[in-house]
Fold this protein.
Amino acid sequence: MKAMGQKASVRILENGNFDITFIGTEFNRISAIEEAIHYQQYKKYGEAYVSEHLAELEVEAQNMLLRIGKKEGWSKGDMAEIEGAKKTWEKLAQKK
C-alpha cells in the first residue's frame, strides 16, 4: 500500500463497522477523513459498486476533501496535495 502512495486504508468489518489502518508515519487528518469518506461511500453504494467505480469514487472523495479543506481553512500545501491526488484519479477514471 505504501508503494502506491497510500497513507491509510479502510477495512470494512463483517459487523458493518470499519477500522482505519495508517501506513508509516506520513498519515495526517486528510488521510483519516478520506478513509472515513470511503467508508461512507461503501455504505451508500455497496461493495460491488465501489469495486467497479474506484477511480470515480476517489475523485468524489477528493472533491469532498477540497470542500472540507476550504471550509476549515486548511493550508495551501494540504489543498495542493488533494488537488494533485484528484488529478491523478481523474486521469485513471478517463482511461476506464
